[in-house]
Amino acid sequence: MISRSTGIKIGVAMLAIPVVVSASAFMGKPATYRCAGVESGSVARVVAETGDIHGEETRTYYAAVSAPVKNIGIEVGDVVTKGEKLAEYDDTDFVHNLTQATLGKEQAEVSVQGQIDKSNSNYAKYKAATKDDAIYSQLYAAERESTQALTENQYAEDYYTNCAYEGITTKIAQKQEEITKKGQELSKQKTKVANAGEYATKKMKNKQKDLQNEYNELQNELTALQTELTYQHVDGYTPAENEVINDHKNVMEDITRNWEEAKTNKLNYESSYLNENEKAALMKDIDKADEVVAVASEELTKAQAGVVSDFSGVVTERLVESDAFVQEGAPLFSVESTDEVKAVINVSRYDIGSIKVGQKASVDIAGKKYEAEVSEIEHLATKDSGDKSKVEVSVHIFNPDENVILGIESDVTVYTEEIEDAAKIPFAAYYTDDGGSCCYCIENGVVTKKYFTPGIVGEDYVEVIDGLTGSERVIVDAVTDEQVGKKAEEG
């Protein structure tokens, strides 16, 4: 049995090219056939399939904000262009939110600035109090040193004066103690004499008299000591020295009072100004307010932008009605691209191994061919209607025009392998039978059959590895073994 290769295409070739046999063949004259020689040129192996046209990008548009949708003017099947507005949002709430956020930011800025200004003022006062503290500390030390700057002689004089003063004071204390004891003794003696009455003896009265004299003498001595004490300088200084010391004392009191006030102010203001970390924390309040404004502004921008098509295409789905309230993220429309399109074919396990991304291809849509290229090969096979496993292959179409309609069928040819400068014969001359690959030639005026080793079997040509010399004239019309040996000529 003899057959053409690659199935369907052979059937077409056999129907399209009838046997050219003149009536003279039945009268002993040679039959006339169209022939071709063995050529040198490129040969490409192809995989031919029927596929559907799709946009390379299908996008579902989701609501960018939560708001009512209005002014929807598209329906399923409508053609849209890149940048076309598909719908709008009601932006009333977003304008209000931005206004409130802006006011909140302004209030935060005023509040934070007020706190920082107050902090800066308190810090300045703290620095002034710190400076005063240091100044009064130095003044206090200097004044104290000045107050104590007395001469050594004055110190000696003061020492002796103080010693004398302390000595007289001690004697007065002792004398007062003696007077007290002597007074107690005199009182007791007077009681005895009074109790004895007329029976009081002379001896008793003389003792009373003696005790009285001793008491009076002690009183006189005490008076003398007290008089002596009045002539001593109690504070150890002369009036002039006392005046100087009092002046120094007043200055020291002023310094001490002001110093204490400075230290108190320093302590109070030290805890009432903000450090850098606290200021940074306050500034974060402004940053947060800025973020709220930024979010509100961004939301308003998205609302005012509406829904805009990212590319030209066809609306394949509409999921919302005008004036409906939608939540952010809700699907609205689906658009399939017409700027970038592809043909999708399903390839069997026998051919998929020869297909690679980047291979040249052609797509025939309603008789018009477009240059193309294999762009994607799926890695998961699916079952076709005949329960056969097929792999989906996408073929990118270059320069599509208005004739490329989404969803339409197309004939896709993928050029899986190509060699240059190959010996080749037309595909129409190629046959196979139980003996292998063969062709029919005209040699010495008769039809002959020759077997050869093919290489790449392409859409238009078949590569010849060996078996033909290159001088043969192969028949491109349909021929069978019945014509072998019969007279023939090239016409």
Word description of this protein:
- By secondary structure, this protein is an alpha+beta fold.
- Among the domains are: about 1-55 and about 340-490, Elongation Factor Tu (Ef-tu), domain 3; about 65-85 and about 310-335, OB fold (Dihydrolipoamide Acetyltransferase, E2P) (Beta Barrel).
- The chain is about 40% helix and about 30% strand.
- The strands form 6 sheets. The chain has a 6-stranded antiparallel barrel with strand order 4-13-17-15-14-18. It has a 4-stranded antiparallel β-sheet with strand order 1-19-20-21, with no helix packed on it. Strands 5-12-10-7 form a 4-stranded antiparallel β-sheet, with no helix packed on it.
- A hairpin with a 2-residue loop joins strand 20 (about 435-445) and strand 21.
- Helix 2 (about 90-145) runs antiparallel to helix 6 (about 275-305).
- The longest helix is centred in the first third of the chain and has 56 residues, at about 90-145.
- The chain is rod-shaped and about 215 Å long.
- About 20% of the residues are buried.
- The model is unreliable at about 5-25 (pLDDT under 50).
Can you give me a brief rundown of this structure?
The chain has helices spanning 8-16, 92-147, 152-196, 202-230, 239-270, 276-305, and strands spanning 2-3, 31-33, 35-37, 39-55, 58-62, 67-70, 79-80, 85-89, 307-308, 313-318, 325-326, 331-337, 341-347, 360-365, 368-377, 382-383, 389-397, 409-426, 431-433, 436-443, 446-451, 453-457, 461-466, 473-475, 488-490. The chain is of the alpha+beta class.
Topology:
Blueprint: E1 2-3, H1 8-16, E2 31-33, E3 35-37, E4 39-55, E5 58-62, E6 67-70, E7 79-80, E8 85-89, H2 92-147, H3 152-196, H4 202-230, H5 239-270, H6 276-305, E9 307-308, E10 313-318, E11 325-326, E12 331-337, E13 341-347, E14 360-365, E15 368-377, E16 382-383, E17 389-397, E18 409-426, E19 431-433, E20 436-443, E21 446-451, E22 453-457, E23 461-466, E24 473-475, E25 488-490
Parallel strand pairs: 2-25
Antiparallel strand pairs: 1-19, 3-24, 4-13, 4-18, 5-12, 6-8, 6-11, 7-10, 8-9, 10-12, 13-17, 14-15, 14-18, 15-17, 16-17, 18-23, 19-20, 20-21, 22-23
Helix pairs in contact: 2-5, 2-6, 3-4
